Fold this protein.
Amino acid sequence: MILLQGCRYLVTQDDKRTILEGVDVLIDGNRIAKIGKDLSNGLQKEATAIDCSDKIVLPGLINCHTHLDIQLFRGVSDDKELHDWLDGIVPRKNGLDGGQLAEAAALGCREALRSGTTALADMHYTVTGTAAMVEASGIRAWLFVSYNDRISKNDDVGASPIFSEYEGHPRITASVAPHSIYGCSGDLLKKVHAYAQEHKIIQTIHLAETRKEQYKCKQQHGLLPAQYLDGIGFLDDRTLLAHCVWLTKEELRTIAQRGCSVVHCPTSNMKLASGGVMPLKEMRAAGVNVALGTDSVVSNNSLDLFSEMKVCALLHKHHYWDPTMADAQSVLDMATRNGAKALGREKEIGSVEEGKLADVITVAISDHLTPIDAARVVSHLVYSANGNDVSDVIVDGKLLVTDGRLIEQDHLFRTARLKNGRVSPEEK
Ligand SMILES: [Zn+2]
């Protein structure tokens, strides 16, 4: 049991966006058991108590687009055109062995957890070592195995052992991700979609990231990217579309009608100069669920979702010449509730409510988050906080970060060095 005691502010992110003051949050097992005043009185079992009298408590952030397999390449291919950027990364990535991939995953999970991310959606080609390391880190993750038959040929859909290894796992969900329209044939896209439908799992794909992709798609298929995917029956309510910078209003309507979610990666889009801005206002108007992602540390260069929230808010205000755009509350929604919905788990994560899974973080109220009152808490989280302000991180009821330090630190580094990157049962 964990008792978050006397929360200065509890930003619940429930349907009414309730903010509570001075309450306790009791976590029993992997669930939020109770929220209320003075819950320590009459506790039957012993609980780990965390003083939250100078902390903001909120749901863990959800990063809906990452690539942990290139975590080791932060800073090696900056300030380059997209194709030069890729040339700097792909050969390096292809040269990694299982142990290095595991190390990359460990570093990524550490960074994500330390900065308040409790769930992430990771897209990767190679899963050797990655899955075991992600599991060992304690984070909640969707491991999207990436397929393509035009870049490096990985088209054996569902062949990865992680699909059976993690079936029914409480935190790890194995899933599928055709890389992109330009990386996959129509047949492969259909095959992946059929697999996702059969297994009732979320599928994700890079879509309309650049103008070149839009142009090429129109040239090859006579259709715009979302029209093309819809034409082959790919789009449905278990589809998560990454980037979506270059889309027309008509495509947005299609995406909304099919119930797809979109993950917005503003920093990555700006760093790689995608040349456009994801049409957030128009997406909202069409009723599309929009989540938030950092993309990899090669194109960001950080997994800090607090920073990403601020970048997101600023980008859209600037772009639309409208300071009311991407307000703090709606951006916090993107990083919490909307992410949960995009991953099909909105009933379980994304808010701090009794009965939900205990994915909860605390943020220390330091100088740059003051003065503070209930009306300003959400603003501070989006515009003033950063990942270093995160004090405690709980995932699935387990305390993984306390006072800004990872509890599993040594364990993660130790397992990262294991041969082949596999975590032996006794190491778990
Ligand atoms: Zn990506």
Summary: Confidence is low (pLDDT under 50) at residues 417-428.
